[in-house]
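Interim report, section 4.2 (structural modelling).
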Amino acid sequence: MKQQEKLVKEITSMDVDFAKWYTDVVRKAELADYSSVRGCMVVQPYGCAIWENIRDELDRRFKALGHENVMMPMFIPESLLQVEKDHVEGFAPEVAWVTHGGSEKLTERLCVRPTSETLFCEHYKNIIHSYRDLPKLYNQWCSVVRWEKTTRPFLRTMEFWWQEGHTMHATAEEAIAETEQMLNVYADFVENCLAMPVVKGQKTEKEKFAGAEATYTIEALMHDGKALQSGTSHYFGDGFARAFGIQFTDRENKLQYPHQTSWGMSTRIIGGMIMTHGDDNGLVVPPAVAPIQAVIIPIAAHKGGVLEVAARLRDELAAAGVRVKVDDSDNSPGWKFAEYEMKGVPLRIEIGPRDIESGNCVVVARDNREKTVVALAELAGRMPALLQGVHDRLFQRALENRERRTFTALTLDELIDIANRESGYIKAMWCGDEACELALKDRAGVTSRCMPFEQEHLSDTCVVCGKKAKSMVYWGKAY
Amino acid sequence: MKQQEKLVKEITSMDVDFAKWYTDVVRKAELADYSSVRGCMVVQPYGCAIWENIRDELDRRFKALGHENVMMPMFIPESLLQVEKDHVEGFAPEVAWVTHGGSEKLTERLCVRPTSETLFCEHYKNIIHSYRDLPKLYNQWCSVVRWEKTTRPFLRTMEFWWQEGHTMHATAEEAIAETEQMLNVYADFVENCLAMPVVKGQKTEKEKFAGAEATYTIEALMHDGKALQSGTSHYFGDGFARAFGIQFTDRENKLQYPHQTSWGMSTRIIGGMIMTHGDDNGLVVPPAVAPIQAVIIPIAAHKGGVLEVAARLRDELAAAGVRVKVDDSDNSPGWKFAEYEMKGVPLRIEIGPRDIESGNCVVVARDNREKTVVALAELAGRMPALLQGVHDRLFQRALENRERRTFTALTLDELIDIANRESGYIKAMWCGDEACELALKDRAGVTSRCMPFEQEHLSDTCVVCGKKAKSMVYWGKAY
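Predicted structure of the assembly:
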């Protein structure tokens, strides 16, 4: 097992340096590589396969709810970005500007899209005329660019991949219902496919999306106690529609402005998955999005029959819908064990001459390394439960981490004290004033993560100013 | 049928103005819309669904051959683009340049990728060290930008979507085999999924990809007799590897340069599909990539039972794997007929009270409008053959168009005469000199489409200069 030790030793321990552990895992599990373009990453085959699984799961959910995919230009003319005032203020400082095409200087600069509300609005103006044209439920899969100062693979990159849904509705009620529905789609996906428990809530005015009336969010807590905004859904009212002059005639033949939403989830969520489930042996990938759900490792593969049985098991599992691989390379079993632990493959199936003799194999779960002896004839049938077991334990472990790291503060001193000693969510009452939000950032180093939909009445007064509290807020440090 | 006539009349006839017919179909079938970004298009849901089907078909073929997807940055630093001399000469004049990030001026300009050889090479330099690391068989799905002067939806847009495969191999033989294999994948896909017959061949030196040693191509002939380069596969030798310093140690522990390929197919192929199969009633989509393969139109839908039977048929067909839709909207049957003809849905299924009484429905094929009476109980079972029938007739019709439009010229006068009178391929012998290629462009307005793999010996001498001929070439006008 010397090779295994060597491979494992190359990762920094989480407890020693969580940030270093993170980048070690990204590199050693071959998720992403750096590129010579500052702040941009190369997503390698294993990382790309995880993203494709995430994409397929989400895309199926979107389409089942009537959404359709489109592909918009990657450029936005400067004048188009400027149509909605709050929006341009929020995004103009962080966009990449194209000024030349070939050798000619452009008469108008184009920005590389940081988000596509303006492009969708321009198109919607062309195609929405009557109530019969509504709702429009569009989505696109693409990459966007934001000129970030400090970057880390997946968590914050200048270019990142995402989906952005953009919908138009006849009424405010319908649009708000869509905003809530899509937040629920995200929460369902993140909890049931990525095994990450989330808090659903609303962003404060300060933290909401540029140009939105309301931003809803799902927030997940990482292993180190920092929060990650994992998916957002925005309600725009008719603000963009008015700015862009998008109108439709309703059933009474009156001109109306449609109401709008947008919602997005990005490759950032892969960073969240790594920081929620990973350990000192590397990545742990939840079964629903794992490129390889089970790897079969032949033991003493040179002995008669082992490779044949391994191949037969692979075919049986594949036929049962499991994403399975046999590693029959020359590397030692110990090396392979370490390699697939590093890559976070949920189940390892060991099969050797003695196993074949007894008609069994050994299944080892990635998360707790527990070994289960399974009859060869029963393996395919037991896979769903074995995979579900990994998922359930991952979710439970993440939930326990969150519960252990969720605190309550009734006074400012208490909040500052917790923020100094602990890393996690701090629940505290808030009056709704941005001044108090800024004070908490200044004095405790925390920001508002969200006003959870599930409110608790901790006290009557704001933890900062002592005025009447409007809501309970989750505060914390965030990625 | 007044509405139908009205809808149909809105398309220009192909014979009156083929270019106008093309853009009419793109707009009326709701494939794509224009945007305020010059030369960029909005791919609408129906066009996007066709592209997703193309993507899924190709992606499955690529993965079955061991290729893996990655996601590369969209930017290339100017110095990186310049590493390979022929490559930068070919592409630098037509790239979009990013010069500012937010408010800061960049120290080095970034171009928006026109193609990604340089980015792949940079990454391959990081990850290829030993013969054990080879081959690398990578692909990515993305959009690229080329600063084109004149643009048309799908056929030539500043931004277009494509896949670009980039592979590295230990030997020239392996790389050449990959180049040929991927051209065959393209030919198989285009003929068997898009029903477009292709000619496989090699590009001349003048027409090959910037930086490649050899470019292979599949060429398709459009309804109007102009050719469309439909997919290309390039062999690079070790030119980029030497320029980028990519080396590996072989089995004898010697340093070697790997050999490289790239290959691509783009949203252009949708333009080819439109111009191969469309007619004066609109689009015709081959069944393999049709978002809707069959549309069920209830006749006299208010009468008892019609909608129920339509819904039952839909469920039966969907269960049999057919992409099917019922249109139970308020529009008249005539309107619906015209609408789905415009959208090129391969099969229309009409079901009314009298059909139900007799236990039948009427299936109408989009391509020839032939009606087939089919027993309701047999419909699902007969769908594969009915869809295959549409495919086969589309392929046959396109093949006949190509054969009718393929000419042979033994002298320059003959070639010029054919080029003046006809639109199509002209087969003629060529000495291999670029001067003769330019002369044909100048005097007959044709370019070399390819040197087909299936060579014919038409004569011993070049049709232009009379020197010894090296190969038979397909000449023609092209999109």
